[in-house]
Structures are given as C-alpha cells and as structure tokens.
Amino acid sequence: xxxxxxxxAHPATLVALVAFTLxxxxxxVVANLVASKRAGFLTxxxxxxxxxxxxxxxxxxxxxxxxxxxxxxxxxYQYGWVVGLWIASYMVAPLTILGILGKRIGQLARRTGxxxxxxxxxxxxxxxxxxxxxxxxxxxxxxxFLVAQFKAGGVLMKIVLPASAGDxxxxxGLGAKLDAAYLLGLLIFTATVVAYTAFGGFLAAVWTDVFxxxxxxxxxxxxxxxxLHAAGGMEQATTAGMKIAGDGFAFxxxxxRAFHPMGLAFSFFVMWAITGMGQPSTMVRxxxxxxxxxxxxxxxxQCFYNAIVYIPLIFIFVAARSILPGLENPDEAxxxxxxxxxxxxxxxxxxxxxxxxxxSTVSGFLLIIASGIVRDVYQRFIRPHATERELAxxxxxxxxxxxxxxxxxxxxxxxFLQLIIVFASSGMAAAFLVPGLMGAFWRRASAAGAxxxxxxxxxxxxxxxxYGSYLGLQGFDQNxxxxxxxxxxxxxxxxxxxxxxxxxxLLAGVSVSLVxxxxxxxxxxxxxxxxxxxxxxxxxxxxxxxxxDVTST
Amino acid sequence: xxxxxDSLLRNARREAIIxxxxxxxxxxxxxxxxxxxxxxxxxxxxxxxxxxxxxxxxRWVFWGYLVPWAVCGVFTFWFAGFYMVDxxxxxxxxxxxxxxxxxx
Lengths: 553, 104
Fold this sequence. Notes:
With 553 residues, chain A is mostly helical. Chain A has helices at 11-35, 41-47, 54-60, 66-79, 82-87, 93-100, 102-112, 117-125, 128-160, 180-231, 234-245, 262-273, 280-288, 292-323, 333-341, 344-382, 388-409, 417-441, 447-473, 497-515, 521-528.
C-alpha cells in the first residue's frame, strides 16, 4: 500500500541509514567486549566503571533528543527567529549543567559507592524510602519521555523506507488506526536500539552517543550552506519568511501567535540551563566521569558543540520557511528539507542525525530505568545476595523488557512529541534538582525535606500540565506557547509549569528540612568534612556501623 | 575540635555561586535586550524596516542572543579552562556497595 503523503527518499538514503545503524550495533558489541575485561558487573554495565573521558561526557550530556532534530526545527519553521531565544540558554547550559553539581555529585557517588541516582539519594539522606520514591518517579517520567522518543524513531525510519514497506507487515489486516509503515519503522528502531543497549550496557550507550553526536554535527554542517544557498542568504530568508508567515516571523513573540512572550523567555532560561541539572540522565553522567580535569574539559567541549549545532539549526530552519513554504506538517521540516537539498547519500547521513539523537537518548534512558529495576527493586527487595551472573541476566532482561513495553505503547503514538519531552523534563527537574542541590551543598538538608521537595515539585508540575490538558480538551487556548493539541501546559502568570514546580520544590525542601530533625551529625560529617571517617566505620540509616549491619536488614 | 570542611566542597560551592551569577546575568541581559530591540508590543508594531539586519540576521537577534552566546563561550573557556580547581574526587566504594546495597 503506498502512502499518499510519503516523502520520496532515494534508496541510497536508506542504505546510508542502514550503514549508520550497523555501525551503532557494532559499537555495542565492541563495548561489551571491552567492558567484560573490567571487574564489577553493575558498575561497568550501568556506569562504565566511572571511566568517561571529557569528549564522552560533553557529547553524551548534551541535552539532545528527538526534539532537537524534529520538534525544535518545526518550531523555528513555524514561529521564526524568536525560537532562537527559546533555546538561547544553551549558551550557559554547559556551565550550569556540568559545573554546578558535577564535582560534588562525582565525589559523593564515589564516597557512598552509589551507582544510580536512587542509590545516591538513599545514601546522602540515609533514607531507603527516599530511594524507592526516587526510583518510582524516574520510571514514570522516563517512560513518558521514552514513548515520545520511540515515536520519533519510528517516524524517521518510516520516512526512508520504500513506499511499499507497509505491505511487508500485511497492512490491510491492521485496521485503520495503525500505520503499517510506521509500525515497521518502529520495529526496526526498537530492535536496533534495544539490542546494542542490552548487549553493551552503559559503555555501548556512551560510545554510540559519541559517534551519533559527531554525525549530527557533520549533518548540520552539511545542511547549513545548502540551506543558505537555496534561500539566497539569511536576509532574503527572513524577508521571505515574513511574507509567508507574517511580520512576527522576524520578531518576538513569534509568527501567528505569542509563541514566546517574556514570561516564557525567562522560563526557558530556567528550563534548559537549570532543569538540565536535575535530569537523572545528567546526574548519572556526573557520577561516571573520570576526574575533575575531565569535567572541566567536557564543559569546554560541550560549549563548542552547542554553538556549532544549535545556532546553525536556527539559521537552517528560518531558511527552510522560504524553501518549503507550505508544509502541512511542520514536524517533517527536517527530513523534507534534507531530501530536497542533498544528494541521496548526503541525505542519508544528514537524516542519520535526528535518528542518532533519538537512539542515543533512548539507549541512555533505557539503562536508567533498567538500573532502577535491577538495583533498586530486584537487588534490594527480591535477591539481596544475587550473584554477578544473576545480576547480569536480570540487567539484560530488564533492558529488553523496558524497551519492548515502551515500543508497544508507542504503537499508538502520542501526537505531541515536543510537549511530552518538555513535560517529562520539567517533572524530573522539579522532582530531583532541589534534593540534589540541597544534598550536595547544605548539611542541614534532611530526608523529610528532600522527600517534600520531590513530591511537591513533581506534584505541582503534574497538576499544571493536567489542568492545561483539561483546558485544551475544552478548546481553551491561552494563546501563548505552541498551539494546544489536547495535551498541554497551563502557564500560570505566563510561566512554564516547571518553573513553578522548582519554586515550590525549593520552598518545601527548605522549610520541611528546617522544621524536622536534623540529620545525624556523624553521617553528615562523613559526606561534608575533610578527613571523613572510613566508609566501613560510617554510620548507616539504622544507627549502627556499616560493618555491624551488613546482613541485618 | 572544630570541623574542617572538605576542600572540594568549598571549591565546588564557590564555583557554583559564580556560575549561578553568570546564568542570572545572561538571562536578564538576553530577555531585556530582546524585549527592547525585537519584541512586538502594544503601541509599537514592528515591520520589515525594523529588521535592520547585521550579517543577514535581524538586529535584535544579533545583540539579543548571538553576541551574548559568543561572550558566554569565551567566559566558559576561561572559567573551565583556567579557573576551576582540579579537586581529587576520592576513592570509589562501589564494589563494597554492590555486594549488598541494602545497608547503604
């Protein structure tokens, strides 16, 4: 069955994308071989034995996902130059995301032996309940995020598959609601990313991330001169965009609607640069870098990388408005522009950029959820004395099971890719950033305070999204931000819900910490003072020395 | 005996405060400059003649977020390259914890 709306990709584009996929799989195999030479399965599978170099930290901690190459270009195409301000906090994001918490998280993770974020919170606050709630919240928000990413992966693969690909799945038997070509794309995407992630673990995710990030940067560099040439330069592109979309294309708050009023401009400086610190995927990288020097260099590399990827993307998709003036679905701006401007082989390479961004996000997040299941549920509650072999098997099974479950949900894909990404990012930051900051820098922060910060922050964010979605379903439009599509945010006083979530989380964390019992002085001394006592002599949550408590719980 | 705070903690806190101030400065400058130079508002509709391109991009884009982006890049290079301290992160106890995580 052919698709009337299909983008006509040349077979060579598919060949280039398949080659890219095979290289990613190959890196997974090599990572597995390298990792198998290192001791300690859990540390190497979920944290790469804390051996990440500067290049790897910089490129894998870059806040890129399917949204970077699908949702973001779509926004620039629709609303114009103001979307550059939407992303502009990336100018300071490497400093904030890696520099504020980096060294302290790295130190605390080593001192407590933490492998996962729940491990870290549990040890810092001496609270098993906090660890469990952290795990559950991570699983909830990351699962939402992953569904959106799987959809992006399926859509991108569908675009380069032959028009008749849907017939291979027996499209006629699937019913009107299912798109056979999308399902085939989703199947290929799922098989690839789950295979290399499950097999190679954290190192595979990181190595493929690095490879894919390089491909993304090269893809953008290729597209920039092609787009500028086709549009006749930036000035021409701006003027043409204004004729097509209205004068707002060149100014704030954006073309057609108030996409980015000042309240949201401030919000998104908080959203990307500050909430990026609170993402579990970022914190895991901060637990995995090699040393302080590595961290410093990775900040510089990421700063350079952001500048050569995001600024060109703004230029490219401002130009795209005049090159492809009447796109019905702006989410297709990237693939359509690539196929229009490049020769088929270049197109395959450039299309690999968004595909790589989605794959790298998915692989990292799959491992975070799997580590939560293995470390925080299986090992803690079901098999505390599991052997390395059992843990290895559980890790492989958990990674595959999570991937398959998310793919099944994505067979009925959500429509709001970028909004779901913003929602999940806001929710995670509102839940984890304040407990992370308090835990790293404030001795007085208590487990009750961290718990209050987590629940209040994520609760407020969820409530504002739920209310926004309710209003959206009633047909109410606040006329700011992206067009409502049913699922959406409620911008209280014009600010993004994540900002309110963070504010409430901070208030709750500080006030509850101050009115509850202070943490055990010996425990805090272990984490905050020089000449800290030896780990085995440090107190446990049960008030005993660790050496006396190894098997008591 | 008075407590002696970990030197990494002291350095990390000082660096975090500086980074926070830089973030605040970037946020305030970008929002104010963009609003003043390039936001359509009541009583001041903007049109083609207000684009006033610099190197092909609208003037407000150039001064509102491209120049600050470059300035932040230079600052980041100096701060991370020369100012931040190479602190020792300590030894890793993950192996001890992996044996039985319940007592952490």
